[in-house]
Amino acid sequence: MSKLNGKTGYITGSGRGIGRAVALKLAAEGANVVVNDLDHEPAAEVVETIKAAGGNAVSHVGSVTEDGFAEAFVQTGVDAFGSVDIIVNNAGYTWDAMIGKMTDKQFDAIMDVHVKAPFRILRAASDVFIPAAKKEAEAGAVSYRKVVNISSVAGIGGNAGQTNYSSAKAAILGMTKTLSKEWGRYNVNVNCVAFGFISTRLTEGTDEKKTLTVEGNEIAVGIPKKVIAGFEAAIPMRRAGTPEEAADGVYLMCSPESNYISGQILTVGGGMTLG
Predict the structure, then answer these.
(1) Which of 93, 165, 186, 251 is catalytic?
(2) Which of 48, 65, 143, 194 has CB 3.0 to 4.6 Å from 151, enough for a Cys bridge?
C-alpha cells in the first residue's frame, strides 16, 4: 500500500524542476496532487503525467504572490479532493546583486515569493485543516498533516550577492519553527528542507547570457561553467544534486516516518554547507 493514499498535497512551483519532481513523487506514493505553476502548459503536463500513471491531480495556474492566490489555491484542492494534508512551499527564484546595486524592487520581490506567499498559503490552509483536526480529536482519531517549507543553505550560512534570497530563506526557517509550536497540538508536522546545489534550468551550466521573465522582471538564469566546477569541488559528494534527489528529501518530511519530527531543518546538499 502506498504511504500517502487518501492524502492531498499542494505543491507550489510544481510545473518544472524540483517542484515537478516533488509532485510526481507524492503522486507515486498515492497522494492526490494540486499542481501550481505560473504557466498553463507545464502545469497541465504534470497533471497529465500523474493521471497517465494512474494518479489524481488538478492544477491551479497563477503567481503565488498575487492577492487572493492563497485562498483560491487551497479551494481548488478542497473542491477536487476534500482535504488539506500536505503543503510544500516550493515556488521561488533568485534575483542576485551585491547589496550596493540591489534595488528595493529586487529585495521586495524575493521576500514576497519566498516568505509572504508561504505565509498567506499556510494561513489560508489553516482555515481548513484546524477545524478538521479539532473534529478528529473529538472523535478520538489522529491524522497527521505535513508542511514542508523550502529553504537553502544560503538561508543557513548566507551567500554573497544574495542578500535578498539569503534573508528570505532565513526567514522561512523562523516561520517553520514558529508554526511547529503553534500547530503541534493539531498533529501538524512543520519542517524545512534546505537545498544545496541542485541542477535545474535556473542553475544549469552555461557560458551564454540567458534570462527568464518572471512577472514582468527579466531575471538572469544559468551559472558560468567555471563557477559550477568550483561549486561542485566544494561539495563533499563532488556533484550537484538532481531534482529527484531533492524531491526525496521533501518526501521524507511528508511521509508517516516523520510523524514525530517537527520544527527541523533537513539539508539536502551532498554535504555542502555555507558559512
Answers:
(1) 165
(2) 194
